[in-house]
Amino acid sequence: MPNPSFTQRVNLLNFDREGLSQFFAEWGEPSYRANQVLQWIHHYGVTDFDAMTNLSKSLRDRLKAEAVVSAPTVATHQVSQDGTQKWLLKLDSGNSIETVFIPEDDRGTLCISSQVGCALNCSFCATGKQGFNRNLSIAEIIGQLWLVVRQLSSEQGIHDKKITNIVMMGMGEPLLNFDNVVKSMDIMMDDHAYGLSKRKVTLSTSGLIPEMEQLSQVSPASLAVSLHAPNDELRNILVPINKKYPIKPLMEICKNYFKDEARRKVVFEYVMLHEVNDEVEHARQLAKILEGVPSKVNLIPFNPFPGADYKRSSPERIERFRQELLNAGIYTIPRKTRGDDIAAACGQLVGKVDDRTSRTSRMKKTNAGDSDRVIQNTTAPDIGISDRV
Ligand code: SAH
Ligand code: SF4
């Protein structure tokens, strides 16, 4: 029998520990093979099965013939003056996604994408405008981390700024790619793979209540909720999924999300839009709805993109808003913008989405000359992203 071609081989990056155990069980191998292989691939970054010396020769030969470790490939890599790095990763059929690394003095945060585009169409978010193509596979999600770890350690002088925090805040709504995202986060937190603590792996959601409920039962990861407005009337416009999952039940689930861990808090993200949601009255309403919810608030300066209807709040308005929340006893951090010289801040990431929802063509009607534009993605981090966690 000829070997399967490269593309037909099983990509081991698609498995978490449980998946690998099942895979090896079908081959009649003991379950500890999963730990060994997870460690080779993720901890040591080894892709050559011959180098996996604690596996039997026959297993190595079979893996060589039938399996592969294959991550997305780098199309471009840019480094900002402030040290932020951005990779454009090529996927199939012209789609691409971006991943951003933000080094800080005491940590390094990687912002990971979960979907090609996003179907939820928040009005301040360029990803929302670019439409949706598909969910990323586990290999494409964890592959972003796998790849960047390798990229950083192969660069002189950067290996000391390795990844300590992960935020699922790149392109897409992670809870709409539930299984693949949860399994990818499992790999991030697995001691045989990356061994990150649950406090340092954060999923950000626009507030999908049933999926949040499910997530709280299956994953210990940290949670960020993109709130952006303190009342339903405004949130319905900014985050349209609010019509389905309004603020009251959203706050109810947040109140109890970490009920077994008294000191854990939900991070609320609030994008600061000039004269839209940044009045003192909005801060007061926000303090009111957060009453009784163990919370931290991150104020994100809006990052404009072509065709955006909003302006960024001034630093004075952001500070005034923050003071109001602090007066109400709510821990609130304004975020700095990082990496904007290489378009790596929130609202500046570039991915390419072959839209399947026709939203892009609707956009093109209002943006003549856009047809071959690489559409911006807004969902990457801006800064101090690690402040969220
Ligand atoms: N879909 C998920 C995760 C990705 S978005 C979510 O909405 O939470 C990551 C963060 O970037 C979200 O809080 C999002 O609201 C914010 N964001 C999107 N567009 C932005 C922009 N133009 N400026 C600043 N932040 C933005
Ligand atoms: Fe999707 Fe998040 Fe952007 Fe809303 S903010 S459109 S949920 S990526």
Q: How does this structure look, described?
A:
The protein is an alpha/beta fold and 389 residues long. The protein has 2 domains: 10-68, Orthogonal Bundle (DNA polymerase, domain 1); 73-388, TIM Barrel. Helix content is 32%, strand content 19%. It contains 12 helices and 16 strands. The chain has helices spanning 17-26, 32-43, 57-66, 126-130, 138-153, 178-189, 209-218, 232-238, 247-257, 280-289, 315-327, 359-366; strands at residues 10-11, 67-68, 73-79, 85-90, 96-103, 108-111, 115-117, 132-135, 165-168, 201-205, 222-226, 266-272, 295-301, 331-334, 349-350, 376-377. The strands form 4 sheets. It has a 10-stranded mixed beta sheet, covered by helices on one side. A two-stranded parallel sheet has the order 1-2. Helix 1 crosses helix 2, helix 7 (209-218) packs parallel to helix 9 (247-257) and helix 10 (280-289) runs parallel beside helix 11 (315-327). The longest helix has 16 residues, at 138-153. The protein is globular, with a radius of gyration of 21 Å. It starts with 9 loop residues before the first strand and ends in a 12-residue tail after the last strand. S-adenosyl-L-homocysteine (SAH) is lined by residues 118, 124-125, 169, 173, 204-206, 226, 269, 271, 300, 302-303, 346-347, 378-379, 382.
